[in-house]
Design goal:
With 274 residues, the protein is α/β, with parallel strands linked by helices. Helix content is 40%, strand content 19%. It has an 8-stranded mixed β-sheet, with helices on both faces.
Length: 274
Amino acid sequence: MNERSAMSLSSARTGAGTPARSGRITAVTSGAGGTGKTFLCANLAAALAARGERVLLLDADLGLANLEVVLQLHPRCTLHDVFTIGAALDEAIIAAPGGYSVLFAGSGLVEDSRVASDLRVQLEKVIATLAPQYDRVLIDTGAGISDVVLYAISLAEEVLVLVTPEPTSMTEAYATIKMLATAQRRRTIRLVVNQVSEAGEGRSVCTQLQLVADRFVVPQIDVLDAPLLLDLLGEIPIDPQVRETTQKRQLMFDATPACPAARSLAGIAERLCG
């Protein structure tokens, strides 16, 4: 994999500067679409809830939200309504299958790849208000390294990057890792490798990304405080139950909890809590 140039984001705040909150804020992102990010968020939230955590899944894909399609829910009120017509925040939070709460963005909240300053303030206030009410807030970001995505990530204490073993996905994941390390000064970035065909493939992907980051990213950052570490949370195998439950708009972790992918998600949730 060759080094890719990354977009600059002069306005992004660093993750280290995010105020401490009682609930753990975890952003889930991916370098490109098609990795299964929203599927991961929906099912990881259920896996965390099964461990006893009070979980809020916040849809922060402000331009092209699709979480409601995955969960087959039809919210009457979304973040779009909270921000544009002053709807009550409590009305926008609904119970989801899997025992957790969800706050949908509503499609078209952001028309382009930039976040207006007033929207930044509103989104930060929403997270600050809700975080103390939960053990964990999962932020489902959009894909890529747009201003919208990077700003949503900047509000989180930790970030989880989803990648597949496909070369294109790995290249896009590297671009995301580079941006998080340079623009947001992240020093630990957690990885989940999806759609692996054999055990250990996730570790191989993580090792390759770490080697490239060590070569091209580390020379650009100050590592006196801490090295850049890619922390592999786990790998999710190719599993026919993923496609089947997705097509049926079912939550896989509930519908088929014993399938290989669901068991992997349970392990990822355990390590995330640990």
